[in-house]
Amino acid sequence: MPDIDTRALEALVRPGARIAVADGCGTPQAAFAALGALARDRGGVRLLLGWMPAALTGLDLAAFADARTVMPGWGLRTGVAEGLVRSVPARLSAVPALVAGPMRPDLLLVAAAPSPYGLLLGSEVSWVRAAVDAGVPIAAVVDEALPRAAAGPPLPDEQTTVIGRVRQGPAVVPAAPEPSAEHRRIGELVAGLLPDDARVQWAPGQLGQAVVRAILDRGRPVHADSGLLGDPVVDLAEAGLLASSPVATYLVGTARLYDWADAQGRAGRPVLHGVEVTHDQARLAADPPLVAVNTAVEIDPDGQVNVEGSASAVVGGIGGHPDYAAAATRSRRGLSVVALASTHRGRPTLVEHLSRPVTTASHDVDVVVTEHGTADLRGLDRPERRAALARLWA
């Protein structure tokens, strides 16, 4: 059983409080049962969540007067579908302003890794650093098994109350299935677009795996600069194809990834930074050239992109898709790439009308890639762009 001091947590929560829970694979699951019980007892407690890529074991969403997420992941799909969690449409770069302003929490619940320098954020930093810097009180579950991958200072002692100690580590998210022939072809086409000394951001899943595999096959070093890092970054590191220390805000993968992130001495490997750094468009648009490789649920004839889901279900959130796409269009020698299979479950992914609101604007898309080839939209007017996309899907 998790060793959680429920009295220490109770002392930090007043009726009607908004509690933010650190997101990602290192979310403090050990405290979820105590948090839900406290919410039921106190009444009126509100919940703020972020990206949850794994199941939220033990968290009773119905116990809260209001629950919202700024980035639904797989772990929140059921909660969103059942109306227990409201999904706030926000690009990831805007979340720090939300948590420091209109959605400022009264308490921040985190899991933290011990280090010689103090308690560190472990397998993600995300928007949590913004809440820390805003002076929000912190309830920390110390987890000895978290990787020490966060750059920046430890959690401030004067803000932090330790409410428990565990040895659980981040959630393990298995590697994506082996890329299909379509995804392998898309990966090859994307790798062929990379300029020398490229910084690359890639999407998770089969597509990202296929892109990294194609980069490995080419044997040319790249800089990894992405919202999240999965196991493929270890493949690049072991092949000697990382041109610099990676930059990301989340780790999501298996023990192999977490061990790699924790392997550089007692201080770990500080590859994780806050969203204010990772998703800063001025930084992203600077040299070396940024190639942002994102995918889509669907795209319309003008090149507008939907990544949030279908008409009947929320699949994901806005996240960093528009942040990286916009920055890549401004990067000299860079590219904003949207890569997707031409069909999904037998239906074309080029649709006349998007099922959900636009995630990324058409003017922030440079090149569209499917297994059939590429459509370079740069410098084209609206009719020419429509014609190029129509040819790609023809």
Describe the model.
By secondary structure, this protein is of the alpha/beta class. The protein has two domains: 3-166, Glutaconate Coenzyme A-transferase; 181-251 and 280-393, Glutaconate Coenzyme A-transferase, CATH 3.40.1080. Helix content is 26%, strand content 20%. The chain is built from 13 helices and 21 strands. It has helices spanning 6-10, 32-42, 77-81, 95-100, 128-133, 181-191, 205-218, 232-238, 255-261, 275-278, 281-285, 321-330, 382-393; strands at 3-4, 18-21, 46-49, 66-69, 86-87, 107-115, 118-121, 138-143, 160-166, 199-202, 223-224, 228-229, 250-251, 290-294, 298-299, 305-306, 335-339, 343-344, 347-348, 367-370, 373-376. Strands 1, 2, 3, 4, 5, 6, 7, 8 and 9 form a nine-stranded mixed sheet that branches. A six-stranded mixed sheet has the order 11-10-14-17-20-21, sandwiched between helices. β15 and β16 form a beta hairpin. α6 (181-191) packs across α7 and α7 (205-218) packs parallel to α8. The chain is globular and about 65 Å long. This is Acetyl-CoA hydrolase/transferase C-terminal domain-containing protein. Keywords: Hydrolase. It holds the Pfam family AcetylCoA_hyd_C.
